[in-house]
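Need a sequence for this fold. Nothing fancy.
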């Protein structure tokens, strides 16, 4: 085909690009998949995005396993390295990857795992939307093996937990256990148990602690090993959150650090690791050390293009940080920004925490009418999303939220008197030399 010939519906330059793509991209895609380790750097994400576009121009010239390899490489590189703050094509990146997944599905190739990666990517853009759920449900429908089916149902359970749909999450976990009972998909057994523990963290914390401690105990007895490490990291992280809810900040940070050591290379988890440590340091009044972790969390989320519920949770911690510095107006702006994000992306738990902090902030300022309106919204949201069939869990979760929200009203000790803040050294082992806090 002559590159100067225009195709109906295309401009001349588009036709030229298509012709060159058919000639050049198949070879480049094969090379990228064959040398995938050379591509796993954030500066290569734009290059991979270009290859995704090129693959769509000439998919017939690329074998299915190579197309699948390109999609997997593109997602995994993004998850582990991020794209840098200059990359702005996140939605196009996902759209092109999904189009290739459709091509693979039409060819009869396995696509369930790729759809789960698409759902993970979508969570950075909008965590609780029907679009993310749709990708996961497609992964369930297209699963061809017990391993794929349990992985997809587990992911659907986690989505349901994220959106406070606890009964629906229990149903998916029950379906996972039915598959495990047949002797299949055993490599997911620990993940199913840990996800059940995470579910109970929000509905029955005492039961959650027992389940998660049992997982960690068995892992310690048997040593580390492959696929169980990431679920154990999750178990340790939530044991840290339980310790934090009990007010044992030192133990909580130790759990977080151990979880980070075991965790996979995905940046999103690293971002939350720094956010959770910062949360505790702020509450202890260790503001300068908290700054390091807050900035690192913000930079990590920026590399991922995180604009969904994760950013709202981070806003909660930034707001407490600025209250500690006596910067109440800035704290309120951050809280309101986080609330908007939580509502837009269906993150009821994040919104509840932010509302509780905003309520305490206005109560501290004796703005009772505003505080009352916030309280009404919070009670309505809690009743609609968080009340479960275990009434004892209601009090437990409210107590934890209240404890964290009340820290919003406490300025650092150095702002209340001339005495230095309480001595507390973060045990994470990192140098805390970050001083600028403009990212908040």
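Here you go.
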């Amino acid at each position: 085909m002559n590159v100067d010939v225009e195709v109906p519906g295309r401009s001349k330059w588009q036709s030229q690009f298509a012709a060159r793509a058919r000639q050049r991209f198949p070879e480049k895609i094969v090379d990228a998949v064959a040398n995938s380790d050379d591509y796993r750097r954030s500066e290569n994400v734009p290059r991979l995005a270009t290859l995704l576009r090129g693959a769509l121009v000439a998919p017939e010239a690329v074998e299915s396993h190579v197309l699948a390899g390109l999609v997997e490489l593109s997602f995994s590189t993004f998850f582990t390295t991020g794209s840098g703050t200059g990359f702005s094509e996140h939605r196009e990146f996902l759209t092109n990857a999904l189009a290739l997944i459709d091509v693979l599905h039409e060819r009869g190739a396995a696509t369930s795992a790729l759809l789960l990666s698409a759902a993970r990517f979508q969570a950075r853009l909008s965590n609780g939307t029907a679009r993310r759920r749709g990708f996961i449900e497609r992964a369930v429908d297209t699963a061809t093996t017990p391993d794929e089916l349990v992985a997809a149902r587990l992911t659907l359970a986690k989505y349901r937990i994220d959106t406070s749909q606890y009964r629906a999450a229990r149903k998916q976990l029950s379906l996972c256990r039915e598959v495990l009972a047949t002797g299949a998909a055993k490599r997911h057994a620990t993940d199913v148990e840990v996800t059940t523990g995470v579910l109970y963290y929000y509905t029955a914390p005492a039961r959650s602690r027992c389940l998660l401690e049992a997982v960690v105990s068995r892992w310690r007895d048997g040593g580390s090993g492959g696929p169980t490490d990431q679920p154990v990291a999750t178990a340790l992280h939530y044991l840290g959150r339980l310790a934090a809810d009990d007010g044992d900040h030192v133990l909580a940070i130790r759990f977080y650090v151990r979880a980070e050591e075991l965790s996979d290379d995905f940046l999103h988890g690293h971002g939350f690791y720094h956010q959770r440590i910062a949360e505790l340091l702020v509450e202890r009044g260790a503001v300068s050390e908290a700054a390091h972790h807050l900035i690192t969390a913000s930079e990590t989320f920026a590399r991922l293009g995180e604009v969904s519920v994760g950013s709202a949770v981070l806003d909660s911690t930034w707001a407490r940080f600025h209250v500690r510095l006596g910067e109440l107006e800035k704290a309120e702006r951050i809280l309101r920004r986080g609330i908007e994000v939580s509502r837009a992306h269906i993150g009821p738990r994040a919104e509840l925490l932010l509302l509780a902090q905003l309520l305490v902030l206005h109560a501290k300022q004796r703005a009772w009418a505003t505080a009352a309106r916030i309280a009404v919204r919070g009670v309505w949201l809690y009743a609609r999303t968080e009340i479960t069939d275990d009434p004892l869990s209601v009090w437990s979760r409210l107590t934890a939220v209240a404890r964290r929200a009340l820290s919003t009203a406490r300025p650092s000790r150095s702002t209340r008197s001339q005495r230095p803040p309480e001595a507390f050294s973060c045990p994470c082992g990192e140098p805390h030399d970050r001083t600028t806090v403009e990212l908040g």
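For context: Residues 1-8, 408-422 have pLDDT under 50 and may be disordered.
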